[in-house]
Every structure is written in structure tokens, then in C-alpha cells.
Structure to design on (235 residues):
């Protein structure tokens, strides 16, 4: 607690690390201090705080889950973004009983338009971690996000497929991205194009063949952007 209260960034980082280990002896105070550090002006301190919260979340899941739901309501996008890091830490053990509670946190995060939250939800916490740990449950939630009318869940649904874990789910990816590709909102079809570029790297012949079909209908814009990657590589 003393380290976490210092002005030195290094001291605060050390404080976050120590709080992850001393948490059982002062749970409420530890989480309060980490929440404050998660909103620190220094990005490295915020990283340490989010990582520490994830360590604690994984060890004391049921007690910390309500705290994470509170963090989701924090006015600071940095605190809300720390929930993304906490999800990653909590998912490390792959406990199947943790899948739905973690994905319900993600259900809230995918609606958040704040830049810090946005960058760390679909492509990072969900695609980079949850999709690898809990593929079936995660894809069920991603399908729901893709079927939403709102821009942010649809953007996040597309960005899940930029992660390396998507290489095992090319079929589902193409299916969901096909629907999202018709969205006229620029952030959504740009996210689709980004995801398609990654899928092209996974299975180039198959994905290219599918995208050539898209060029003939209202999916042509994101398809052409993705296929441009191949054209540039051939030059």
C-alpha cells in the first residue's frame, strides 16, 4: 500500500505487483488501490495494475467478479479497460465455469465506444484470449454481437478475427464477416477488411476464392480492401 501511494512510477508498479500477492490480507484495500492505479497517468503503471487485477481475479474469482462489474461502470475509460486485462488474467487457467461470467463482462465491454476499451476488447481480450480458452462459448457470444444493430458490438465481432486464435475458426469467421461486410458504417466494414486480411494469411487460397465472390455484390468494399494485400504482395 505504501509503494502504491508514492509519486514514483516505478514504486507504483512495484506496489501493484505486491498487492497481487498481499491481496488475501487486505482484499478491499488492495482492490481500491489497484482501481486507482488503473487510472494512473502513466500507461506502464496502468498495465501493471490491470495485470495485478487479473492475477487476483484468477485466484479469487467469485469475490472479484462483483468488483469487475463495478469497474465497468467507472467514469474512467482506463479503469474500464483494466477489466480487459483482468479478463485475460482470469482466463489463464481455462476453468470452464469461468467462461460465461467472463463473457458477460465482455458483453458490456463490446458496447463501450471509448478508444482504450475498444482496442483491447474484441481483438485482444476476446480474440486473443477467450476465443482460445473457450471457443464454443465465445463464438456464441460473438454471433450475438454480430447480429446486433449497434455499431460497437458489430465492430468488436469483426475484430475478434484479427487474433491468431481465429485461424482455427475460418469457417465461422467467413460466415459472420459476410454479414458484417454489408454494413454501411465505415468503422464496421473497415474492421471486416482488417479481419479478412488476417484470415487470408491463414488460408489464402480458400479465403481469396470466397472474397472474389463478394466482389460481385454489396460486400465488395471490404473484400477489395483485403484482396489488395495479395495484389501488393505480388508486385
Amino acid at each position: 500500500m505504501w509503494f502504491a501511494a508514492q509519486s514514483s512510477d516505478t514504486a507504483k508498479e512495484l506496489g501493484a505487483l505486491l498487492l497481487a500477492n498481499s491481496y488475501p490480507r487486505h482484499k478491499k484495500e488492495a482492490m481500491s488501490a489497484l482501481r486507482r492505479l488503473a487510472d494512473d497517468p502513466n500507461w506502464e503503471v496502468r498495465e501493471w495494475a490491470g495485470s495485478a487485477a487479473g492475477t487476483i481475479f484468477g485466484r479469487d474469482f467469485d469475490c472479484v467478479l462483483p468488483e469487475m462489474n463495478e469497474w465497468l461502470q467507472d467514469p474512467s475509460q482506463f479503469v474500464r479497460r483494466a477489466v480487459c486485462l483482468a479478463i485475460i488474467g482470469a482466463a489463464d487457467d481455462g476453468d470452464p465455469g469461468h467462461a460465461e461470467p467472463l463473457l458477460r463482462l465482455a458483453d458490456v465491454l463490446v458496447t463501450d465506444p471509448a478508444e482504450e476499451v475498444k482496442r483491447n476488447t474484441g481483438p485482444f481480450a476476446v480474440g486473443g484470449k477467450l476465443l482460445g480458452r473457450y471457443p464454443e462459448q465465445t463464438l456464441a457470444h460473438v454471433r450475438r454481437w454480430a447480429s446486433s444493430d449497434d455499431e460497437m458490438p458489430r465492430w468488436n465481432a469483426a475484430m475478434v478475427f484479427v487474433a491468431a486464435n481465429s485461424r482455427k475458426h475460418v469457417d465461422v469467421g467467413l460466415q459472420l464477416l459476410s454479414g458484417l461486410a454489408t454494413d454501411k458504417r465505415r468503422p464496421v466494414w473497415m474492421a471486416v477488411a482488417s479481419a479478412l486480411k488476417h484470415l487470408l494469411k491463414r488460408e489464402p487460397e480458400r479465403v481469396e476464392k470466397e472474397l472474389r465472390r463478394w466482389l460481385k455484390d454489396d460486400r465488395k468494399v471490404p473484400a477489395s480492401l483485403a484482396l489488395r494485400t495479395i495484389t501488393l504482395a505480388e508486385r
About this structure: The mean pLDDT is 96. The first helix runs from residue 9 to 22.
